[in-house]
Specification:
This protein is mainly β. It is built from seven helices and 43 strands.
Length: 718
Amino acid sequence: MRSYLCLGILFCCLAAALNSASAEEAQPYDFYADAMGYDPASGLYTARGNVRIEGEGLIITADQVSYAPDQGIIHGEGSIVMRMGQDRMEGDRLVYHLEEQRGFFENGRLFISESQFRVRGRRIERTGERTYVVDDAGLTTCEGERPDWEITASRISLTLEGYGTLNHGAFRIRGLPALYTPWLFFPAKTKRQSGLLLPEIHLSDRHGYEQLQPLYLALSESSDATLYYHFMGKGPDRLGLEYRKLWSSEDRLTLRLDGLKDEDPTQTAVQEGISRDRYWFRMKQNLAFAGGVQGFMDLDLLSDIRYMDDFKGGTLGFTKTNALFQKEFGRELDPEKEDTRTNRLLLTKTGEVFRMEGEVIWEDAVRRRTQDLQDDTVQRLPRLSLSTRRQRLLDLPLYHVFEGESVYFHRIDGERGTRLDLAPRVYAPFRLGPISAEPSLGLRQTFWHSENPLEETSSGYHTENRLLYDARMDLFTEVYRVFDGGPIGADKIRHSLQPRLTFEYVPDKDQNHLPFFDDLDRIEKKRRLTYSLTQTLTARFKEERPGEEGPQDTYRDYMRFKISQDYDMDRAETRGEKPFSDPKAELSLWPLPYVRLFGDITWSTQEAKWSAYSSGAEITRDAHYFYAEHRYASEISASLHLRGYLALREDLGLLWDYERNLKEKIIQKQDYGLRYNAGCWQLDLIYSDDKDDRKIGFYWTLTGLGVLEHSLDESFLP
């Protein structure tokens, strides 16, 4: 079947190029040549030497051309080249009817710029408005007379936006036939078309031999679907569906559903809540309504907590699905290991000075649901909010903002009820010489109406309220100096110091009797001073840019260093408590355009030692890529992550992705591979091993035709 898939792709290349010619309507043409003549007997115009014929969207050059005006036919010989935009067709002899837009090339060669396809044929003929015939055809994206791979056929006949036939087709490697089909009937459409896609194939310890076969369905101009059949040598087969609908750039939907029926789950699986029907449904949708109202829907429904771990690779796996949603919607899924999956519908309306939101959130606690445990997960059904932007208060030197929220909290087991929260705030910014000051005062009024059915003494719904105020003062400034560029080649270097001091105050208020749904229900007292210092180095270069006069300014960051710490006045007045928080420093360096160094470190004031740190480097130069990061948190975790690609030659390289838990001395992930890139094709051989499964697979890519891949994510590949 693979031969049919590869050979069937030939129609896409020819149809795309030839279709551009079919769209051209008859236009007036201009003729240029070194010498031109006319033969009254035959009625032919002749042109010799640097012949050039131009019409809208079409340029023909040749050594010699004759033109019969009564027939509208051009005969061309010698180095004939026809250009249609960036595409190019050439041959030894051309016969072409300008008005009817039909004719043929002998020993023709066609280059399609967008896809880099090269098509050849002993004769490439356009027989009608949408019909073509190519004799002794060949297709490749490789250069040279003997390409690394090529699809050949004795004859191809096709009708654009219709169907075509291929006779005696073969897939050849370095001229040697590897696959053959005597005849192939295929759809000759330049638009989206239904059909089988290249499969994913890999071997693993867990599932044995696997093949994921996709079937693409073009349902309409604005919607399509892909059906998946996942064969597994060990275990039941899996089915999948992907559906996409596009109404506009702001109104679109993508969903994926896959699952299987496990007729014989293990006893351990049953105890973990894994049923016979296993599935994962995820969907994201953007909605556009009248009046500027926007909607965002996220659904994530999982049959059991082990499903994503059992099927984490391939197109339907977590990483590729998450990357798809991030690319199309700018929103990600919950983390792969998170067993509480968020389902949300959000409606927003934004004006010049306000923003309104209406939201429904259901947190699906998969473990509690499948194992029949008590579920006190908080749901928001719904949440309504109104906020305003900072704006001037009358003609006073004051600014104000407002945030208001009303939420109904629901629990399957536990307290539930409604909360109304109103929070206005006033700012009074001013300057003290070079220092900017911004004092602000906030007021928060909160009401609850709730009940707890699990309490034996509960008498139904009851009402509570709380009134709090808070105060804040921000002081900040910037001091900088500009130096000459010095040895780094910059024109100027700007060194900036940005100190900031913030004081926050919240009075002490007993709130233990209030309902508790989230952190807003317990606002702790606060008398906290936060101070930080940020330093930056920014270089300015003078560079010449094509199309612009004189040198232009470009800027590049060299260094960013920030150190911060808190001082808690309440802790200072409490015996045994240390008022200073653990100071933290963060550093980013770009010593060279292709090098980034980064790290952060935290000092424990209580234990008098470094409590946490991380450091890393990222290097990207030419085809080489290297990333390394080490993280450490005292008594909690330690890890090492290495990822990269090393180009041994222009066409050969090593790639790797390695993660290790240093605290538990466990390898979390290790992928090692070899990549060979011949320009028009590429092969990646990869061995993958994590703590649960091992895989051996490959990426085989024919440039322009697609990729035959294993289930390993390609996200780490450079």
